[in-house]
Amino acid sequence: MLVVALALVAVGVTFLVNQKTDKTATVTAIIDGDTFVIDSGESVRLIGIDSPERGDPYYFEARDKLSSLVKNETVLLVRDKENKDQYGRLLRYVWRSNIFINAEMVSSGYATVYPYPPNLKYSDMFDDCQSEAINSNIGIWYKPREPLKKMSLEDFLGND
After folding, report:
1. Dmax of the chain from CA atoms?
2. What ranges do the domains of the chain cover?
């Protein structure tokens, strides 16, 4: 078995590509913010993250973000411990060039951490990405600031 080591400096991730189980594919359709279809017709579920479902706030934004990252692009699909989920979708970590798509969806606030045992290889990284998104107040973590109170001249000058 030939194993190739790749280092992604941009996100500080080193991973091994197993040429028997990991492959490249072209993304042909986006289902939502954590699932897409590849040129073989198979559905791929991003491991370790969860995005809003249809009808939930930020569904369209999450779907559009994933689309902007991978639609019509060739991606690397990397397997963890399990091959498929209960719905028959391939469970994969996904890279496009030097972008770790699973992590990007979380750090940009379009998905939350969703541990999927036993597929936990990058769980700590995803936790860090989620903390970054929460602290940055972006995406699904966005909380508008309280509006400024409109002050009258009396409020400004005081009621002495």
Report:
1. 84
2. 20-142
Cα 29 to Cα 91: distance, rounded to the nearest angstrom = 16
Phi-psi region of 158 (alpha: psi -120 to 50; beta: other; left: phi over 0): left
Burial class (CB in 10 A: 0-12, 13-18, 19+), 153: exposed
Residue 26's φ and ψ, nearest 5 degrees, are -100, 135
42: CB partners within 8 A, 6+ apart: 89, 90
The whole-number pLDDT of residue 134 equals 95
Considering the domain 20-142 in this protein, what is its CATH number? 2.40.50.90
Q: Which of 90, 59, 58, 54 is nearest to 75 (CA)?
A: 90
Residue 75: phi and psi, rounded to 5, are -125, 160
pTM for the full predicted model:
0.80
Query: What are 36-94's pLDDT values in tens digits?
Result: 999 999 999 999 999 999 999 999 999 999 999 999 999 999 999 999 999 999 999 99
